[in-house]
């Protein structure tokens, strides 16, 4: 890609960020899910604004994990929320067993924001654990030890997502060793020695 094309794409990206940032009311969405047992996963990432969910990172996603018993009703609530959002372009809906993704696009299928909702059973035993030990704040999140487990699994699945490894290293002093062993943590020798 030429320098001019890269510059054009960066200017276009900045324009889209400025014009469309925070057009989805995530605060209202999360409030509408308040009666369900759910958690927001991976909310502590380098690209997340400090005022999340009032502000959100354009081009990224919101990962929700919902109990199996609440999943269908939570998805219906999310779909009703999306239907009431004045986005101006069709929202792309993708369904698979235990998972629904709602994609808000700019023109030419450029991602604005993705709401990714999964049933707890899609993560096996870990899914239920993430929901049992929750920290309630503006929105529910897994306890730190469970989030560490989840991040280790995510990193093992895709080592290119280094922000998961950075999260693990940042909070490694809070790591519960039996949980790490149960997770079959097989990161690099250098990382394991830091736990």
Outline the secondary-structure elements:
Layout: H1 3-20, H2 26-32, E1 38-41, E2 60-66, H3 71-84, E3 92-96, E4 99-105, E5 111-119, H4 125-132, E6 134-135, E7 141-142, H5 144-157, H6 162-170, H7 177-182, H8 189-192
Helix pairs in contact: 5-6
Helix content: 40-55%
Q: How many individual domains?
A: 2
CATH class (first level) name of the largest domain? Alpha Beta
Q: What fraction of residues sit in β-strands?
A: 15-25%
Terminus-to-terminus distance: 42 Å
Distinct helical segment count: 8
**Uncertain segments:** 182-195
Task: Name the overall outline.
Answer: globular
pLDDT average, as an integer?
78
CATH topology of the largest domain: Beta Polymerase, domain 2
CATH architecture title of the largest domain: 2-Layer Sandwich
Instruction: Give the oligomeric state.
Output: single chain
Major sheet strand order: 1-2-5-4-3
Radius of gyration over C-alpha positions, nearest whole angstrom:
18 Å
| Biggest sheet overview | 5 strands, mixed
The chain-level structural class is alpha+beta
Number of strands: 7
* Helix/strand order, N-terminal first: HHEEHEEEHEEHHHH
């Amino acid at each position: 890609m030429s320098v001019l094309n890269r510059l054009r794409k960066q200017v276009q990206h900045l324009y889209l960020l400025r014009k469309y940032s925070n057009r989805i009311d995530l605060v209202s969405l999360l409030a509408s899910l308040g009666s369900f047992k759910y958690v927001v996963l991976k909310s502590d990432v380098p690209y997340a604004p400090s005022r999340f969910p009032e502000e959100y990172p354009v081009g990224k996603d919101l990962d929700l994990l919902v109990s199996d018993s609440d999943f269908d009703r939570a998805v219906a609530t999310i779909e009703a929320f999306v239907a009431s959002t004045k986005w101006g372009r069709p929202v792309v809906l993708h369904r698979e067993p235990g998972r629904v993704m709602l994609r808000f696009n700019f023109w030419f299928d450029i991602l604005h924001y993705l709401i990714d909702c999964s049933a707890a059973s899609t993560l096996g035993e870990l899914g239920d654990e993430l929901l049992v030990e929750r920290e309630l704040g503006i929105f529910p999140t897994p306890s730190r030890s469970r989030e560490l487990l989840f991040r280790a699994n995510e990193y093992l699945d895709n080592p290119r997502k280094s922000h998961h490894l950075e999260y693990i290293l940042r909070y490694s002093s809070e790591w519960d060793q039996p949980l790490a062993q149960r997770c079959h943590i097989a990161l690099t020798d250098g990382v394991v020695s830091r736990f």
